[in-house]
Amino acid sequence: MILQDSFQDQIVLVTGGGSGIGFSIAKQFLTNGAKVVITGRNEEKLQKAIEKLQDAGEVTYQICDIREQEQIQQLADYIKEKYGRLDILVNNAGGQFPSLAKDLSFNGWTSVINNNLNGTFYMTQTMANTFFLEQKKGNIVNIIANIFKGFPGMSHTGAARAGVDNLTKSLAIEWARQGIKINAVAPGIIQSTGLERYPKELVEGIAKTVPVNELGSTDDVAHAVLFLASPYAKFITGETLYVDGGQRLWGDVFTL
Ligand SMILES: CCC/C=C/C(=O)SCCNC(=O)CCNC(=O)[C@H](O)C(C)(C)COP(=O)([O-])OP(=O)([O-])OC[C@H]1O[C@@H](n2cnc3c(N)ncnc32)[C@H](O)[C@@H]1OP(=O)([O-])[O-]
Ligand SMILES: NC(=O)C1=CN([C@@H]2O[C@H](COP(=O)(O)OP(=O)(O)OC[C@H]3O[C@@H](n4cnc5c(N)ncnc54)[C@H](OP(=O)(O)O)[C@@H]3O)[C@@H](O)[C@H]2O)C=CC1
Questions:
Q1: pLDDT score, position 1
Q2: Looking at residue 15, which CATH number applies to its domain?
Q3: For residue 256, is it within any domain?
Q4: For all residues of the chain together, what is the average pLDDT?
Q5: Among residues 173, 92, 180, 177, which one has the least CA distance to residue 130?
Q6: Which one in 37, 43, 112, 133 has a CA-CA gap of 20 to 30 Å to 13?
Q7: Which residues line ligand 2 at a C-beta cut-off of 6 Å?
Q8: % helix, strand, coil for the chain, step of 5
Q9: By CB neighbour count within 10 A (0-12 exposed, 13-18 middle, 19+ buried), where does 217 fall?
Q10: How far is CA 80 from CA 43, 130, 169, 181, in A?
């Protein structure tokens, strides 16, 4: 696939671009000629990422917690001031922790819903209102998770990601006539910094639960995102693309 011209000078925002999957997405866009803004909560992480990414192209960072609407508006203002437009939004920031539903505290549940469902909505609405609806053009890709058979052991994130899956469909239709496309990518188990946060006993041998007998790479997810944001996918909207080595169709998802 020759993507080079597709993203030349496109302005791309990758939330959570300081590590793991988001870092790979940012790198792939830069390599293909885009100008990229990465965001996260941890400035040191973002600075280290910028050091590694800057040889690939024009990249800057902004601190932005996706749960904080004021910070999101400041991020939109920064992009407006710097570039005057936004072409692609990748809602990658998110995450959770493993816990049985019976053990979840109110705050634990709320934090994960806020992080993955509310944060994604706030970011999407703000970028649509600031850029996409006025431009009559925009491309949004939401990173969710493998929720195909529910998410036992992480019901909070399962519920939040299912919400984003459905939001993707609703907004694809609400905004279709305004030139805005919105799709989602559902990663299975990906060898990334995110996975390092999980207890060893949960992750050990986990590749055996994947039909293709290996974990996905962060680039596997990035390639799907670039495809959905590219003209190759111009007739695709409201879709969720699973990047999971077939795991949704077979065996365990993630058991405690
Ligand atoms: C197979 C793999 C598939 C998926 C992989 C990935 O997604 S990889 C991507 C992986 N990457 C990421 O996940 C990155 C992003 N993730 C995060 O930042 C956090 O997981 C977050 C979403 C909880 C937000 O954090 P925050 O700093 O804003 O929140 P906070 O610290 O203030 O806590 C709020 C509440 O949650 C509770 N709690 C927290 N941890 C645990 C735990 N282990 N256990 C139990 N509970 C826990 C905490 O106790 C508190 O409740 P309390 O005590 O007041 O009743
Ligand atoms: N790895 C995997 O197997 C899978 C991952 N996913 C999802 O893919 C995405 C990327 O995960 P991965 O790269 O593996 O993990 P990481 O933990 O490396 O990445 C998560 C990124 O999101 C940022 N982030 C998290 N919460 C917030 C917030 N409230 N505001 C702003 N930024 C935030 C983090 O930056 P900072 O700490 O600076 O805030 C971090 O850069 C996540 O949504 C994850 O849940 C889904 C399925 C499987």
A1: 53
A2: 3.40.50.720
A3: no
A4: 95
A5: 180
A6: 112
A7: 15-16, 18-22, 40-42, 45, 65-67, 92-95, 115, 119, 143, 145, 187, 189-190, 192-195
A8: 50, 20, 30
A9: middle
A10: 21, 8, 27, 20
4 pLDDT above the threshold of 90: no
Decide if 254 is inside a domain. Answer: no
Nearest CA to ligand 1 atom 3: 189
Query: What is the pLDDT, as a whole number, of residue 204?
Result: 85
Residue closest by Cα to atom 16 of ligand 1: 95
How many A from CA of 114 to the centre of ligand 1?
Answer: 11
Q: What range defines the domain where residue 33 resides? A: 4-249
Q: How many domains does the chain have?
A: 1
For 209-237, what is each residue's pLDDT tens digit?
A: 899 999 999 999 999 999 999 999 999 99
Q: Which ligand is in closest contact with the Cα of 41?
A: 2
- Asked if residue 255 is part of any domain, the answer here is no
* pLDDT of 253: 65
Please check whether residue 32 lies inside any domain of the structure.
yes
Q: What is the pLDDT of residues 129-183, one digit of tens each?
A: 999 999 999 999 999 999 999 999 999 999 999 999 999 999 999 999 999 999 9
- Residue 88: CB atoms within 10 Å: 26
